[in-house]
Amino acid sequence: MISKKRIAIKFVFVVLSYLLVSGYAKVRCTESEREALLTFKNGLIDEQGVLSSWRGNECCKWRGVECSNTTGHVITLQIYMDYVGELQGEVRSSLLELHHLNSLALSSIYFGGIPMQEFIGSMKHLQHLSLSGCNFSGSIPSQLGNLTNLSTLDLSGNYFGGIPFPEFIGSMKQLQHLSLRGCNFSGSIPPQLGNLTNLRTLDLSGNYFGGIPFPEFIGSTKQLQHLSLSCCNFSGSIPPQLGNLTHLCTLDLSHNSLSSISPFMFGSVFGSLETLHLSDNQFTGLMPSLRVFPSLIELDLSKNNFTGSVPLSIGQLSKLQLLDLSHNSLEGLVPPSIGQLSELQFLDLSYNSLKGLISESHFIKLNKLYRLDLSFNPLLMLDNAPDWSPPFQLNYINLARCNVGQFPKWIQTQMNLFHLDLSGANITDEAPIWLWNMSSSLHYLYLYENQISGTVPNISSMSIWCMDLSYNQFSGHIPSFPAYAYVVLLSGNMFSGSISSICKTLQENLNYLDLSNNQLEGEVPNCWENMPNLETLNLANNNFSGDIPLSLGDIYRLTILRMHSNNLSGELPNSLRHCQRLRFIDVEGNKLTGEIPTWIGQLNGMLFLNLRGNKLHDCFNNFTVLSGENEPLSALENEFIFRPTLIYKYLPAGPVPRIERYGYSSFQWKGKEYEYWKNIRLLKLIDFSSNRLSGNIPKSFSTMRGLRSLNLSRNSLTGNIILDIGELEVLDSLDLSRNQLSGQIPTSLAEIHTLGFLDLSNNDLSGKIPTSTQLQSFNVSAYAGNDGLCGDPLPKCPGDILRPPTTNSEENMKEKDGSIFSFMQEVGISMGFGFIFGFWGVIGSFIMKKPWRIAFFNMFDDTRDWLYVRIAVFVSKWRQS
């Protein structure tokens, strides 16, 4: 009996379920709405098949389409792209046929920079509108103000060309979520925004509001929970009105120019605040009290100028997951209470002046920590027991410029380590064997500028992408490099012997190789085809001998070639002409012979060409290097070529090291040896000094408009200095000394107003030094050894002494008025008669009166003797000084 009742109940349940499902199955989208959607689709280019499901009659099952369960009308159209460009085209007005649509999201569909369509403002039933990342431009149509039912508006990631912030948004009083991030608005934020009293989320980050003060009226939006105004260029202080936002959970004001915090930050009004980002501003003074933020999950106060110490109350923020106080002026000890933050995952105290010991107590409960950065605190010392087993598993460790001392043994317990930076950490220890057997996750290893000793074994099986061991005390042979390495920097060590081991493996990814300043010797191997993507090669300051290998010409991406201060011989190989990206060649201080090859003239991007101190010879007349006007490098190209850290930046998933290191050490500049690091990328230099060059200076040199330094000294050049040398309008240093140049100094040289160093000494130049502010400012030594030269700063030319002065103003006056000439004739006649009567009046008296003659010549002799003594004394004192 009971079983029959159960069967009956189940039957009724099945029937009702069938009827219910059948009833819903009959609800389907209308034909007009299906056609409207298909028309919208036809306006898009869908090469990836994103909307491949849009076929058949049942549009309610299409991707991104949602229908009402009761009426069947389309109520939601949401198409989100994984990346911009998967879909592109236009927004067609057929969407107006979707009369019941209340949610429209077309995020990251590429609409090609067209203005936003005005008809969208007629879709008055919309409650949610998201058109983020669609590449709209122009202005936002005012018709959008008609959408008074909107609770969500997201237009972020479009480019509205610096237009003022749209005031009509202040009339959309139902708005709860407003995101206009990265829209390139300018001017100011209209106060009408304070009318949005229902606002819960406001994101205006990434707009440029021109240094205006922080908008006080935002304090009127008292229901606000999430406020993001980063990268808006606000200035001044955070106003006290922000204290009205007692429901705030997220506050992001990073990357502005704010300079002070109002007292509200020290109150207790932000008990619910979970995220506080104030990084990259201009805040000064003591850090705000942290105990008033008990709910904080993320705290970022980095890149300011906060002073004082890390607050002891930091240990009370029990929910804290991210703590970034880096790039401030904090001093004192790191409180052990930081070790009580059991939820902490990200800890960055780098670039401060913290001091004292960091021991196990600072990490006692940090079992969730995955990133630790204490770098650039020189007085911070690590004090961990050799057998300490930390509670965490880090993937990022940065202790650069701390006082580490011995190589930390606890690092070998970190099985997930991705990035290890111990550079400049005062380590005086031998590299442990376990370091070279780290887990396969280690991709970045920075140990440079320590006193780490030992040898480096075969590490070809390691997963290293970037390895910098430079300026230590490593010895032995150069190891085989990791197979996937992009950057290998081993300079400034005591590696010795041959580098033939680099030929054993194919290094397809290697981009930057620096083996300079070691004790390497033998021939440079001829296997560079194994490194087809190499851009920078530095073998300088070693003992390499033999020829420069031909296979360097197989590296078509080669940009920087530095082989100076070796014992290389032979000629520059012609194969290098295939390296059309070369911008930096330095082979100074070798024993290269032959001519300067003409193919160098085809390298139009050349910035730095240093052939100084070799045995290059022969005629110099046909040299056409850099004869074209080079386009200036973009800022990115400059940085990428001369800063290894920028190379790190473009590696897969790689963090950017914070130590800025540049690509050069020293060279001749303005007659002296200089070390250059940061400014090398700004230099355009040619140095052919101390060779055996002959012939004339090529006229093509005058076309090198961007040249900043030209050094042709200590050769056997003849002929004249090129007349158009003044075309080198940004030249800062010119050295043509110790040649056999003749003729006059071109007057165009006086037109180079940037010239800061000049040496034309020890040639056969003659004539007057051209007059200019620049040329007369150099010392006499700049022109010494040219017997025919004269004029300031050398002694005056003979013609200058005899020639009476004539001014242009007198000549102009003579040309303008002929009466002046006749007047001067009359004056001249009068002066002539006056001279005759005056002269013979005196001379006649001397002839007639002998006592007068004797008295006059005695006075003359006395005056001459007095003047001679005065001059002799003055010259003697001048020589002594």
Describe this structure in words.
The chain has 881 residues and is of the alpha/beta class. Among the domains are: 285-374, Leucine-rich repeat, LRR (right-handed beta-alpha superhelix); 393-501 and 509-523, Ribonuclease Inhibitor (Leucine-rich repeat, LRR (right-handed beta-alpha superhelix)), CATH 3.80.10.10; 502-508 and 532-802, Ribonuclease Inhibitor (Leucine-rich repeat, LRR (right-handed beta-alpha superhelix), Alpha-Beta Horseshoe), CATH 3.80.10.10. Helices cover 14% and strands 20% of the residues. The protein has eight helices and 52 strands. It is extended, with a radius of gyration of 40 Å. The termini are far apart.
Largest sheet: 28 strands, mixed
Helix content: 10-25%
- CATH level-3 fold name of the domain at 502-508 and 532-802: Leucine-rich repeat, LRR (right-handed beta-alpha superhelix)
- Helix/strand-derived category reads alpha/beta
- Please tally the β strands and state the result: 52
Average pLDDT taken over every residue: 84
CATH architecture of the domain at 502-508 and 532-802: Alpha-Beta Horseshoe
Name some characteristics of this structure.
881 residues, Leucine-rich repeat, LRR (right-handed beta-alpha superhelix), 28-stranded mixed sheet, 10-stranded parallel sheet, extended, 8 helices, alpha/beta
Give a topology summary.
Blueprint: H1 2-25, H2 31-42, E1 44-45, E2 65-67, E3 74-78, E4 88-89, E5 103-105, E6 128-130, E7 152-154, E8 177-179, E9 201-203, E10 226-228, E11 235-238, E12 250-252, E13 257-261, E14 275-277, E15 284-286, E16 298-300, E17 305-307, E18 322-324, E19 331-333, E20 346-348, E21 353-358, E22 371-373, E23 379-382, E24 396-398, E25 419-421, E26 444-446, E27 453-455, E28 466-468, E29 473-476, E30 487-489, E31 494-497, E32 512-514, E33 519-523, E34 536-538, E35 543-547, E36 560-562, E37 567-570, E38 584-586, E39 591-594, E40 608-610, E41 615-619, H3 635-642, H4 644-649, E42 666-669, E43 672-675, E44 685-687, E45 692-695, E46 709-711, E47 716-717, E48 733-735, E49 742-743, E50 757-759, E51 764-768, E52 788-790, H5 798-802, H6 808-816, H7 818-848, H8 850-880
Parallel strand pairs: 3-5, 5-6, 6-7, 7-8, 8-9, 9-10, 10-12, 11-13, 12-14, 14-16, 15-17, 16-18, 18-20, 19-21, 20-22, 21-23, 22-24, 24-25, 25-26, 26-28, 27-29, 28-30, 29-31, 30-32, 31-33, 32-34, 33-35, 34-36, 35-37, 36-38, 37-39, 38-40, 39-41, 40-44, 41-45, 44-46, 45-47, 46-48, 48-50, 49-51, ...
Antiparallel strand pairs: 1-4, 2-3, 42-43
Helix pairs in contact: 6-7, 7-8
